Amino acid sequence: xxxxxxxxxxxxxxxxxxxxxxxxxxxxxxxxxxxxxxxxxxxxxxxxxxxxxxxxxxxxxxxxxxxxxxxxxxxxxxxxxxxxxxxxxxxxxxxxxxxxxxxxxxxxxxxxxxxxxxxxxxxxxxxxxxxxxxxxxxxxxxxxxxxxxxxxxxxxxxxxxxxxxxxxxxxxxxxxxxxxxxxxxxxxxxxxxxxxxxxxxxxxxxxxxxxxxxxxxxxxxxxxxxxxxxxxxxxxxxxxxxxxxxxxxxxxxxxxxxxxxxxxxxxxxxxxxxxxxxxxxxxxxxxxxxxxxxxxxxxxxxxxxxxxxxxxxxxx
Length: 316
Fold this sequence. Notes:
Blueprint: H1 4-24, E1 28-29, E2 35-36, E3 49-54, E4 58-64, H2 69-77, E5 82-90, E6 103-112, H3 116-129, E7 137-140, H4 141-148, H5 158-167, H6 178-190, E8 198-205, E9 220-228, E10 231-238, H7 243-259, H8 269-274, E11 282-288, H9 289-297, H10 310-313
Parallel strand pairs: 1-5, 7-8
Antiparallel strand pairs: 2-4, 3-4, 5-6, 6-11, 8-9, 9-10, 10-11
Helix pairs in contact: 5-6
């Protein structure tokens, strides 16, 4: 039997700690919309869709956000340089329990004038502020891929990644993109090695970092993820501020969504208009609060920290 009161008190302590941490660093807490027209174009995400109806018969396509990122960047584009939000986000095609829930809580924050290495430092400081104890490694994606999958991402193309999948008897499909093949290898050969380790994994291939600036060599995106005992906790970037390049990446993601038979959403033109107004560099990070709760308090499944897990809400 779960102790509901204990879960409520723990989450209040965590939320209070998050707010105190960011306010001590001169961040402003903001509220962003949950129902939008353009929820994001990533081909691996499936937004919940609805129809917005207005009196007189007008209708608009609406989607629940998978992240508050677009709205947060628009605020940055208006000149507000340190912001954070605690919000609900939604992703369809998720399992009911384990590490996933279709509705979950996200902490997202941005700071103008700093890049992703500074964001890693601040993320670590936040964890320590909230009571996390332990060392956190820092590893480049290229280095762990070379060790665990025997692939050098400096040179790996579609054919090399497909050959590597075959070598490890990993299933592939004729429609697989370079990103798909990378992800298959990552899930099978790399990610399992993170069990028992805490690490920042950084510098992802460009095709895995569509919203980030590139490293100096142009081969990787300035993106990182944090794993605590093998559990993915957050996803951070040095933000891309070039609107033309961002439009090209959105268009490529739209092509991928169409290829996979998924809905293609309108490009957020207001975001592209405001993007050049962001200071360069600017970092952003999205952190799952439910998983953070699990990591800080020793829970094994996400449903253990949710008052109303999806498996209890949808029963037929």
